[in-house]
Amino acid sequence: MSQRSRTVRRLAVTLAGGAVLGVTTLAAPASAAPGCSTAWGSLPESAGGTGAGTVDEIRTGRHACFDRLVVDIDGANGSAVGYGVDYVPQFREDGTGDAVPLRGAADLQIVVARPAHAGGTATYDPVDDAEAEDVSGYRTFRQVAWGQSFEGQSTIGLGVRARLPYRVSLLAGPGDDARLVVDVAHSW
Known about the structure:
Elements: H1 3-27, E1 45-47, E2 54-62, E3 66-74, E4 83-88, E5 106-112, E6 117-118, E7 121-122, E8 141-150, E9 153-160, E10 166-172, E11 178-185
């Protein structure tokens, strides 16, 4: 084998090895995910408050350490929004008390001290009460169910994978609206 052939072969092997190394390096994560705080608890959380506003939207989101449910309250105008969040043995529909089975090993009940109607017109009315939001593929959430609005309060059922820690936040805005945020951790 000539000197030139050996040089070309070495170059080819070197380039191939470098390409494999480069692909392996690119496939590796840039950095490890930050640790997730589990300093939250699983005991009931509540706050008092009455005033203006109606429930007009429920939405969900996935995050690295938790799944999030947000209840949008239209026209709260800075008033305190009352709420109660608690794990319950069985989620029940507001008004009728009928049991609503939820997927998951634990039922989290969210009660917002605001109606979901104004002047006889619904301000929030999902197409399917049992599947108010699509949470397929979420790590912690298994189902979001609309438990109706009755006597000035609205109820949401959240089926979760297990009884996991959660936190509740009430945020002002945008504008004169407010948001009730419930984050449920992926683990303890």
